[in-house]
Each structure stands twice: as structure tokens, then as C-alpha cells.
Write a structure and sequence with these properties.
The complex is a heterodimer. Chain A is 29% helix and 24% strand. Chain A is an alpha+beta fold. Chain B folds into 5 domains: 5-147, Alpha-Beta Plaits (2-Layer Sandwich); 172-324, Sulfite Reductase Hemoprotein, domain 1, CATH 3.30.413; 350-427, Alpha-Beta Plaits (2-Layer Sandwich), CATH 3.30.70; 437-610, 2-Layer Sandwich (Sulfite Reductase Hemoprotein, domain 1); 616-757, Up-down Bundle (Four Helix Bundle (Hemerythrin (Met), subunit A)). Chain B is globular and about 75 Å long. The chains are: A alpha+beta, B alpha+beta.
């Protein structure tokens, strides 16, 4: 398996407590400060007029960050665009870490009004060429994903469920962990 | 660069239709050669443009962050074209001839939007798709995946034949002469890569309409327009086209002129080829601002242009494709999936009723309707595209069309299916009512992604849409069907010229800060295939544009005569009273500290800027004299518009000329206090101080606007027609905008006088 172009999305805990339009200003500050390590931030795309869409995106060269509403579920999203070196586990750890940092920074920006889940997240492979949404891909990817998650979470207490509602969707899994995970300390804007 | 690029290349090797497959291979090779520095950057730029790979805002590696312009530290690589960073994201335009798509194509579009863009596919005002934030090196994979379902990006940009648009009601319209679909399809593929289209100095846009009276085809604003017509010859009906040429929007719009009242369908391809040959051979090449075919038609006059085209037609070598490609066109028809029916009782379902009233229209074929799918600002998500593919499969034989109003149109829906169709669309958040109404706002990309954007057209469009949707059911019936169209600059990609209420972005300096503005454009006509173009009446701050809509629509509702359409109303009352209504929106503007939001644009909290120019330190007295003169110039151009409204073309043209001179004087005075009112002296001083020094040159169009001034001065005493006076007014307005831009530039650099030179 060569898991590249990973997307990790951590959903909000409960209903979205903020006006998502306010994230535009937050992301502009990120771009101005170029404050996403390892990512050249280029612009902010505000797509809130589209229902259940990409929401607000900080567009970067190596990766994007978003408060995303795809599927009608708001969440902090990290989307890797350029290739990453290392093993599948390394790449998943990097993507999960960046998504948690995105969530932490957004929480820091909005205080108690915005809180993300500590028990659930999605992993998508944003490349149908390397990972079509099939049972075969799932069977092949699960060992790598599980190994990476054990390393990142520090335990094996989690459940994976494949996104198999529509084979046209990208390959993806939802991860639920009763023991959960922590968000890192937010880096400054 | 995607991990799967080689996978797609292998998967489609030898399986793609030709010549598209080879074209993609060539492009991939050219990318590699450019990376190695073996292709000149200008050549590569045109190469990628002809493959639909366009630039995007900030691709020069600079971005204003609200306080200063900063360099985006991209890796040091060869450029994609002059001043265009290799790794900077770009836009990919995807051609959809006549807007026709099938479910598989929708699904592929969804995949590409997710994997390569930001999850959004954007429908354009030319029935194309656009994807943004695309990396150039992923282009070949995208093109291969598109080609695998019969779609190309070839010649979607560049100096080429652009997407062939057509009325989306073709084949089902009650008023059409015949279905233009097969002819538009034939023209699109006949001209693609044709040798007679390779020497164009600029782009060339064709359009088809099934009738003359409705707006759907917009043939009057195209480089070449085909209007279906049928005539009787020896007792038999013969199909053909009225063909018009030389129309276009852009900074100075032109109505197309008649090439021929009737050309049999068999002559459509050869005659168009002849037009292309004449344009390629004689069209302007060096000055790209005068290189569209409309300028050649202007220069020669339509009579000479017609003579040249028909002479070229006679010289063409016979091509069997002229007939082969339209063979069977008379029998072509999409047809239905389900039997005809009747719309069931709506049982008081208000949402369904509103949607049916605005979005559903009877077809010519009894028992069937078309259903419009309204997209906010032309945007649709990947999930919605897949849902739409399912819906199209479920209710039709697998066809759907994009529209020039940035929507979709589902055709051949049995009336019996209407409630179920609505339910399925609504479940996908695609059941918004208000198609082709005041809430169905068209906007170009503007400052969101376009390099030329001055103001946020999508920001304003979105704000207006939100406000109007919120009160749409309280809106007076008279204003529900108005068309609002917004462009981010004067180039008119949002088609502001043909809206009831048009807006285009400009900037002004207020209290020492740049403030985004929109010119309000009135007098345009969507009907009659874009039958007339509007003119700007006043520039107002962007944040006050929604108030302008309220004021104008309220005024219309209160003062219109029974049954009077907006276009006729504006013509009757004149633009003066409407300008008076809007003038207060420019008065008593609060300071930056008191209302900073006024000094930023819609959807963008950054302090507004048109580039990297900071706030200047120009002496206040000069500013006040400048503003005084410019106010006079703007008033004159407005008065010229009023003259035109009352059919006083001569006065209109002469007054527009005075506006030119007044604006030029305003600028000259900044550097030379003692300039007189003598036009010759003003021109001489302007030329010496601003033109010869390149100070007045626009970064994108060079000396274009100054040349308008010189041309107007040289043509003093000319006799004006309504048409030429209209052009002169539009050019004067553009010159005034250019004076503002130049003045802003001056304020950020010390003057020679101040520097003691």
C-alpha cells in the first residue's frame, strides 16, 4: 500500500457553535503569518454558500486546512496534497497530527464556542488511482492504518468502519475510540 | 503532484479517443521540457492555455495580506509563463459543447473536483466547468480522466475557438425553428484544432440559438452567432441560420452585425471556416486589446468583412466533413425515458409549488417539462454532482445541460415525475426555487481567484443572494424576474452589460484608503439574445451595493406603469432620477476608524487593496483639485448616457469626448498646475507626462485606455450614430477608471516636482 494524499477530519462535538464565516478571518491570519509548519499557505476559499460543502478552506501548496461541512458534518480537516516520504504509518501519523493541530488552533480561536470530538475522526485517501473504494483496498489498508493508529493513539482501543455507502465515494474509514485522543497545544496564529 | 499520475497514464494508454489522447501526451511532454528549461516560457504559456490551464490570483508569488504585499516563498523552479510561478495553483477550464453532459461525465467531474481541487466544480457563463487550485503537473491526469468520458479541455483558453454555447432548451423549446444541438456539436468538433483557427490574435466565441427573440443563446454578444431559421424553397422547407459576427462584451461591448440573413445548414461549417480564415489572416496580432474579431469588423465595416468572407468561402478546398458532420441532424433527438404525464396535485406543498412555478417549464412535447437546477454562484459539490448523475439516470435518458446562467437544466422530465424529481433534488440540496429570477445571481470569479479581479463579485453576489432569498416571497412580483449579474472588473465575464441590474468592480480612494466599489450598470437587455447593452451610471462602495439594489427595485415598483418591464422603465424614466437615488450612498462615508468594514470587501476581511500599492502621501490640495475635475468628468460621461437615452447621439458622443478631456486634465494638473482648457494642450501634456513615460500604462492592457483618448481627440467633429456614441461613452468611462488607477499609482510614488527634478 502507498497511502498518500490523506485527509483526516475531526468532527465537531455536538452542533457547530460558531458562525463559520468567522473562520475566514482566522485563516487569513494563518496565511499572513504563514503559521502552518511545513506548508506554504496561499489563499482562503470561502465556500459557505454551498450547502454541505467544503466550508472555509485555508489553501496551501502542500496541504489544505478547513472547517469543512462535507456531508453535513462540520469538522476540522487536513488534506495532504503533495507526496510525503516514509511509511504508510508515518504519513498517517503526520496527517492525524496536522488535523489535531488544526482542531486545536480553531478551538483556541473561538474558546468554548467550538469543540471538536476527542473520540472520533475520518480518514480518507484522496486519490482513487491508488485507493479505489473497494473491499480489496480496505483489506490491504487496514493493517497499515491500525499500526499507525496504535502508534499515534498509544493504544489499540478503537474501531474502524469502512465508508461503503457509495462505491463512487473516496476510500475512507471512520475511527471511533472510546479511550479517545488528546489535541495538542495550539501553535500561535 | 499526485501519486497516481502514472497509474492513470497506464490505465488509459491507447484507449483515449484521438486526437485528444495524443494531445494530452504532448502536453505532458511539454511540461517536462519546460521543467528542464527547453521551452520558452511564453510558448509554454500559450501551450497550456490552449489546453485549458489558466492562471489564478497570486500566481505571481505575491499576496497582499491586509497590511502589506508579501512574497509567497515557492520553490525556485521554471515559470509557467511570464511572471507565473510553477507551483502556484491554477484554474483548469473544461469545455462542455452546448452544455451537454451525461451521468458518467458528472461523476468524473465530481471525482476531479474532490481529488485535485477544493471539492467544488464551478459552472461558467459559457457552459464550461472550471476547477480551481490545480497544480500544473496534475493537468495530464485530469485531462486523461476527462477524455475517457469524451470531454476535452483543448482550446478552452488561449487564442482559440472557445466553448461553443447553445440554448439549453434546444430541441424542446416551443419557439425554436429547429433543434440546434447537433449543429453546435458539429461546429465544436469541426473547429477544434482546425488549421484555419491557429492564427488567431485573440479568442473566438461561437453561440447557437433556436430563435431570435429569447435570451437563451445570447448570439448578439458573440464573435459569431447562429440563429436557427427555416425558409420555403420550391415548396420545401429548408433549414438554415441567420449568422451574425463581431459581437462581444468585454470593456467595450459590441452588438454583432449581420453576416447573412440565411445560410443553409450545409453552408454552416464552410462559411464559419471562411470567417475563421479571414479573422486569422487579417485580424490584429500585435495589439491584443484590439485583436477580437469585432475590431476587424469595426475597421473594415460589415460590408467589406462580408465580401472577404464570401470570397474566402469560394477559395476553400472541399471538405467532406462539412456534410458528414451534420448528417442525420434532422433526425437527432434526445427523447424521453418515461411516458408523458400530468403534474399531480401539489396538495398545498408550498416549497414544491414555488419550485414548479419558477424552475419548471413546459416543453414543446406534450406531457414533458424541463427543470432548472439552480446553483449558488454556479458552484456544486462533488456529492451533489453524484446525486445529480443518479437523478438524471432515474428520470431521463441520461442527458443534462449546463446553462449560461451557471445552472443545470434537466430535460424530458415526464410531468408525472415532477414531485418525485423535486424530492430527489431537494434531498441533494439542489431544490432551490428562483431559477432565472432576481435571486439567481450570476457572478464571475472576481477577486476570489481571478488575476484581473478588482472587487469581489462572488462576495457581492452571495450577499445579494442571501438577502433576496430571505425576503423572496415578500418581493413584489414585478422585480422577481429581474436579472442581476456581477463582474469583478470591466471585462464583463459576469455579463453585467446584459443584466437588468449589472455591477462591475472598480476601486476608489476615500479618506486616504482604497475602497472597493461597484459601478451600477443599467439599460441592458437579456431578452432578444442580449439585444442591448447597459451603461454605468454611478460607482458606489461595495458594501453599499445591496442598498442600491433595494433603492432601485423599490423605485421601480412604485413608479412603473402597468406591465412595464424594467428595461422599458429605465428607458422611460431615464437614468438621471435613478442616479439621484443612488448618489446619497456615496455621501457622508464614515472614516476608516469609524467603519473599517467599508474599507474591506465582501467575504474578505483584509484591508482592501488592488495590489501592492500602499497608501500614498500626496498633498491634500492637489487631491481636492483632482477630485473636483474627476467629478466633472464622471458627470459628463453620465450626461452623455442621458443624451443617448433621448436619442441625441451627436450630443452624447461630443459630451463623452468632453469627459475624456476633463479626466485627462485632472491627471495632467497633478503634475502641471497651469495647464489650460485647450484640448490640444491637455493632450500634448498628457502624452508627454503620462503616455510617453508609460506612467499611464495599465499592467494588463498597456496603452489601451490612453489610445481611446487619442482616438477620440483625433475623431473630433465626427458624426455619431447611436452605436458609435455608445462606444465612445463606454470608452470614456474606461478612461476615467484608468485615470483613477494612474492617480493611485502616483500617490504611492514621489512626483518629479516633489523630488526636485
Amino acid at each position: 500500500m502507498n497511502l498518500q494524499h490523506l485527509i483526516v477530519k475531526i468532527p465537531v462535538d455536538g452542533p457547530l457553535g460558531i458562525d463559520p464565516a468567522k473562520v475566514v478571518d482566522v485563516f487569513h491570519k494563518w496565511v499572513a503569518a504563514q503559521s502552518a509548519p511545513g506548508v506554504l499557505l496561499v489563499d482562503v476559499a470561502e465556500l459557505l454558500h454551498v450547502p454541505k460543502g467544503p466550508g472555509v478552506v485555508a489553501v496551501g501548496h502542500e496541504a489544505d486546512f478547513a472547517l469543512d461541512d462535507t456531508g453535513g458534518v462540520w469538522g476540522a480537516l487536513y488534506r495532504r496534497k503533495t507526496l510525503l516520504p516514509g511509511s504508510d504509518a508515518d504519513r498517517l501519523a503526520e496527517a492525524f497530527g496536522a488535523a489535531r493541530q488544526t482542531a486545536a488552533r480553531l478551538e483556541a480561536a473561538f474558546g468554548k464556542e467550538l469543540r471538536f470530538s476527542r473520540t472520533e475522526f475520518e480518514i480518507l485517501v484522496n486519490d482513487r488511482g491508488i485507493a479505489p473504494n473497494t473491499p480489496e483496498t480496505y483489506a490491504e489498508a487496514v493493517p497499515a492504518i491500525e499500526a499507525a493508529l496504535r502508534a499515534v493513539l498509544g493504544h489499540g482501543d478503537f474501531r474502524l468502519s469502512r465508508h461503503d455507502r457509495d462505491p463512487r465515494d473516496r476510500f475512507g474509514v471512520t475511527v471511533v475510540s472510546a479511550r479517545g485522543f488528546a489535541l495538542p497545544e495550539a501553535i500561535a496564529d | 503532484m499526485k501519486a497516481s499520475n502514472d497509474i492513470w497514464k497506464e490505465r488509459f494508454r491507447g484507449k483515449l479517443p484521438e486526437p485528444i489522447g495524443s494531445e494530452v501526451d504532448q502536453f505532458e511532454t511539454e511540461i517536462e521540457l519546460r521543467k528542464k528549461g527547453k521551452i520558452d516560457e511564453k510558448v509554454f504559456a500559450e501551450t497550456r492555455l490552449r489546453r485549458g490551464a489558466y492562471g489564478q490570483r497570486y500566481d505571481n508569488g505575491h499576496r497582499y495580506d491586509g497590511t502589506e504585499s508579501r512574497t509567497l516563498p515557492y520553490a525556485d523552479k521554471p515559470t509557467k509563463g511570464p511572471g507565473t510561478i510553477w507551483d502556484a495553483p491554477g484554474m483548469l477550464r473544461i469545455k462542455v459543447p452546448f452544455g451537454g453532459l451525461n451521468p458518467r461525465q458528472l461523476e468524473v467531474m465530481a471525482e476531479l473536483a474532490e481529488e485535485y481541487s477544493d471539492g467544488i466544480a464551478h459552472v461558467t457563463t459559457r457552459q464550461d466547468f472550471q476547477l480551481h487550485f490545480i497544480h500544473i503537473e496534475n493537468g495530464p491526469s485530469i485531462m486523461r480522466r476527462l477524455a475517457s468520458v469524451g470531454i476535452t479541455t483543448r482550446e478552452a483558453c488561449g487564442n482559440a475557438v472557445r466553448n461553443v454555447t447553445a440554448c439549453p432548451l434546444s430541441g424542446v423549446c416551443r419557439d425554436e425553428a429547429f433543434d440546434v444541438t447537433p449543429y453546435s456539436h458539429a461546429l465544436a468538433w469541426f473547429l477544434m484544432g482546425h488549421p484555419d483557427t491557429m492564427e488567431f490574435g485573440r479568442k473566438f466565441k461561437p453561440a447557437f440559438s433556436g430563435c431570435g427573440q429569447h435570451a437563451c443563446g445570447l448570439t448578439q454578444m458573440h464573435d459569431i452567432g447562429f440563429v436557427a431559421a427555416v425558409r420555403e424553397v420550391d415548396g420545401r422547407l429548408q433549414r438554415g441560420f441567420k449568422i451574425v459576427v463581431g459581437g462581444g462584451l468585454g470593456p467595450v461591448p459590441r452588438q454583432a452585425r449581420l453576416l447573412t440573413e440565411f445560410a443553409p445548414v450545409e453552408e454552416m461549417l464552410p462559411l464559419t471556416q471562411a470567417v475563421c480564415r479571414v479573422f486569422g489572416k487579417h485580424g490584429e496580432k500585435k495589439n491584443r486589446n484590439a485583436a477580437r474579431i469585432k475590431f476587424l469588423v469595426d475597421k473594415w465595416g460589415i460590408e467589406k468583412f462580408r465580401e472577404e468572407v464570401f470570397a474566402a468561402r469560394k477559395e476553400l478546398r472541399e471538405d467532406p466533413r462539412w456534410l458528414d458532420m451534420i448528417k442525420g441532424a434532422e433526425q437527432a433527438a434526445e427523447g424521453p425515458l418515461h411516458p408523458p404525464g400530468k403534474i399531480p396535485a401539489l396538495n398545498g406543498d408550498q416549497r414544491l409549488g414555488q419550485w414548479v412555478a419558477s424552475n419548471v417549464r413546459d416543453q414543446r412535447q406534450e406531457g414533458y417539462v424541463t427543470a432548472a437546477v439552480t446553483l449558488p454562484l454556479g458552484d456544486i459539490t462533488a456529492h451533489q454532482l453524484r446525486s445529480l448523475a443518479d437523478i438524471v439516470t432515474k428520470y431521463t435518458r441520461g442527458t443534462i445541460r449546463t446553462t449560461v446562467e451557471q445552472n443545470f437544466l434537466i430535460r424530458w422530465v415526464s410531468k408525472a415525475d415532477v414531485p418525485a424529481l423535486f424530492a430527489d433534488l431537494a434531498a441533494a440540496d439542489l431544490g432551490q426555487a428562483g431559477a432565472q429570477s432576481i435571486v439567481d445571481i450570476v457572478a464571475c470569479p472576481g477577486t476570489d481567484t481571478c488575476k484581473l479581479g478588482i472587487s469581489s463579485s462572488r462576495g457581492l453576489g452571495g450577499e445579494l443572494r442571501n438577502r433576496l432569498v430571505a425576503k423572496s416571497y415578500q418581493l413584489d412580483e414585478a422585480i422577481r424576474d429581474l436579472h442581476i449579474k456581477v463582474s469583478g472588473c470591466f471585462n464583463s465575464c459576469g455579463c453585467h452589460h446584459v443584466a437588468d441590474l449589472g455591477f462591475y468592480g472598480v476601486s476608489r480612494t476615500i479618506n486616504g484608503y482604497k475602497v472597493p466599489h461597484f459601478q451600477v450598470v443599467l439599460g441592458g437587455q437579456w431578452e432578444n439574445n442580449a439585444g442591448s447593452y447597459g451603461l454605468p451610471i454611478i460607482a458606489i462602495p461595495s458594501k453599499r451595493a445591496p442598498d442600491a439594489v433595494d433603492r432601485v427595485t423599490d423605485y421601480y415598483v412604485k413608479n412603473k406603469e402597468k406591465g412595464e418591464r424594467f428595461y422599458a422603465f429605465v428607458k422611460r424614466v431615464g437614468k438621471g432620477p435613478i442616479r439621484d437615488l443612488l448618489e446619497p450612498l456615496n455621501q457622508n462615508l464614515p472614516s476608516h476608524d469609524a467603519e473599517p468594514g467599508l474599507y474591506s470587501d465582501w467575504g474578505d476581511p483584509r484591508q482592501y487593496s488592488i495590489g501592492d500599492i500602499g497608501v500614498g502621501e500626496c498633498a491634500g490640495e492637489v487631491v481636492s483639485r483632482y477630485q473636483f475635475e474627476m467629478t466633472a468628468a464622471e458627470r459628463l460621461v453620465f450626461e452623455a448616457g442621458l443624451d443617448l437615452d433621448r436619442d441625441a447621439a451627436q450630443s452624447a458622443g461630443e459630451t463623452a469626448y468632453k469627459a475624456f478631456i476633463r479626466a485627462a486634465k485632472a491627471l495632467v494638473q497633478v503634475r502641471y498646475d497651469d495647464v489650460s482648457d485647450d484640448p490640444d494642450e491637455i493632450l500634448a501634456e498628457f502624452r508627454e507626462r503620462f503616455f510617453d513615460t508609460n506612467l499611464f500604462h495599465d499592467p494588463f492592457v498597456g496603452p489601451k485606455f490612453a489610445n481611446y483618448l487619442f482616438a477620440a481627440h483625433a475623431a473630433r467633429g465626427e458624426k455619431f450614430t447611436a452605436d458609435t456614441a455608445h462606444h465612445r461613452i463606454a470608452e470614456a468611462q474606461l478612461f476615467i477608471e484608468a485615470v483613477h488607477s494612474c492617480y493611485n499609482k502616483l500617490r504611492s510614488t514621489p512626483s518629479p516636482a516633489a523630488a526636485g527634478t
